[in-house]
Design goal:
The protein has 218 residues and is mainly β. It is built from 4 helices and 16 strands. A hairpin with a 5-residue loop joins strand 4 and strand 5.
Length: 218
């Protein structure tokens, strides 16, 4: 008999967060189990904008910056983008009329669960369906992983096939200072961050996990 996952929070209310997520994922198909390729639309290079996802020479890429220039009466698009799988950044000058396949993506709000022992996969949970979402570590990044605590909210941008193509970290996280010389602080997660001289050992501070910059004291 099929069991609804909607009753699981009550059944496992006293169990562990991880156990519940694992059980829920076995009862309902993961968003990554969808069959078929993501729908794409042919888009001219001159129409690409920051945040767009497109295929470039077999790579899935995200546009970071665009501009245009006229050369010998021909319009070119200067596109700066990042390979979402490897993180490699590129800058290409392309004829504005050249076409690429652009993919539509949808945001999925998730909460962090854990990373596997081999540090190859990171696991999140959809708080609405309680499904477990498995994402390659390369998509999240080892640096970013250090700032994720149990239950930390984040966003995954997913293609309609269910494949996550971008991890959006929280804008700020709270970290505790273990050591500081008045210029640089060693945080409880092992990372180092430049801090003002008034920050002391034991202080909790807000940090931007994307660039590891100090924001303010909590």
């Amino acid at each position: 008999r099929r069991v609804s996952t909607m009753v699981l929070p009550q059944v496992l209310s006293n169990g562990s967060r991880r156990a519940f997520a694992l059980l829920a994922s076995t009862l309902r198909p993961s968003i990554f189990s969808a069959v078929g390729a993501s729908r794409g639309v042919a888009t001219e290079a001159g129409q690409l904008r920051k945040g767009d996802f497109f295929d470039f020479k077999g790579k899935q890429c995200m546009v970071q910056k665009t501009s245009q220039q006229l050369n010998n009466r021909k319009l070119f698009a200067i596109v700066e983008f990042r390979d979402v799988e490897t993180g490699t950044k590129y800058k290409e000058t392309i004829q504005a009329g050249d076409k690429f396949e652009k993919h539509w993506v949808e945001p999925l709000n998730v909460t962090f669960l854990y990373a596997d022992e081999g540090m190859s996969m990171v696991y999140f949970q959809n708080p609405e369906t309680f499904e477990q979402v498995e994402v390659p570590l390369v998509l999240v990044g080892a640096q970013m992983l250090a700032y994720l605590a149990d239950g930390q909210e984040a966003v995954l941008q997913c293609k309609d096939s269910g494949e996550a193509v971008v991890f959006q970290p929280p804008l700020r996280v709270v970290c505790k200072v273990l050591e500081t010389d008045g210029k640089v602080a060693i945080l409880e997660n092992g990372r180092t961050v430049p801090v003002p001289s008034f920050i002391k050992v034991g202080d909790s501070i807000f940090v931007n996990p994307e660039d590891e910059s100090y924001i303010e004291r909590v």
